């Protein structure tokens, strides 16, 4: 019985130490989430200006006819034939964030199977150790790999990563680029994001457009459109990383909060077991003493 009491005390100590660790990890993720949210807020402000300029140029070109768009970044037809596409996925470099990574991996696997059934060849380009490790373990090739980027995204690194995929698209090696990641919705939930990054589509309402750029020659519009399209794609890659990072910290806060609560429940359960074991030990000792007294008599 003494050995049993000792084992229970060791378990309680171990669980309490684990509880301290999960509490600390929750606090760290909470601090990082605040920074990631602020980064996302500033990024949205920049994105708003970039989108305004980008759609202004598109609107100007739209007025002279969609057929005049010579940029390879844009879809020439709604009924495009897709034979090969790239899927870019973003996962975390670390675990302990619930189903955050699993949700992204599951979606990528679903898309791969879906396109396979349609006879479309899929290539993967991956960001984050967890996703890269999963596909490596399952002998699925990942064309481009980047670690350390999802945990510390910068525009320069994001642009460098996406450029290879963009060049393949512009050269006709692929027909479409998709991006899959878990996005930040709020403090308690994440939202899986899956959308086409390239080609870009024109969706301008038939109304009067106000121009914020003063461009006269048409060829200059095409050059500017190409440059804006490249920046637009690069920035979308960067923002996906920022969004994913905020979602990762949000998921980790939830996971560590649940782990802390579970540890607390386990400590309570073990404490009850410890008290019962103590009572059993005391009762056993009293029985033995009484038995000894009776034997003496």
Question: How is this structure best described in words?
Answer:
With 297 residues, the chain is of the alpha/beta class. The protein has two domains: 1-23 and 256-295, Helix Hairpins (Orthogonal Bundle); 43-253, ATP synthase, F1 complex, gamma subunit (Pyruvate Kinase, Chain: A, domain 1, 3-Layer(aba) Sandwich). Helix content is 62%, strand content 13%. It has a five-stranded mixed β-sheet, with helices on both faces. The two termini are 28 Å apart. The model is unreliable at 206-217 (pLDDT under 50).
Overall CATH class of the largest domain:
Alpha Beta
CATH architecture of the largest domain: 3-Layer(aba) Sandwich
The chain-level structural class is alpha/beta
Number of helices: 5
**Backbone CA Rg:** 29 Å
Q: Characterize the overall form.
A: elongated
Number of strands: 5
> What is the number of domains?
2
User: What is CATH's topology name of the largest domain?
Assistant: Pyruvate Kinase, Chain: A, domain 1
Main location: membrane
Family: Belongs to the ATPase gamma chain family.
Function: Produces ATP from ADP in the presence of a proton gradient across the membrane. The gamma chain is believed to be important in regulating ATPase activity and the flow of protons through the CF(0) complex.
Organism: Helicobacter marmotae
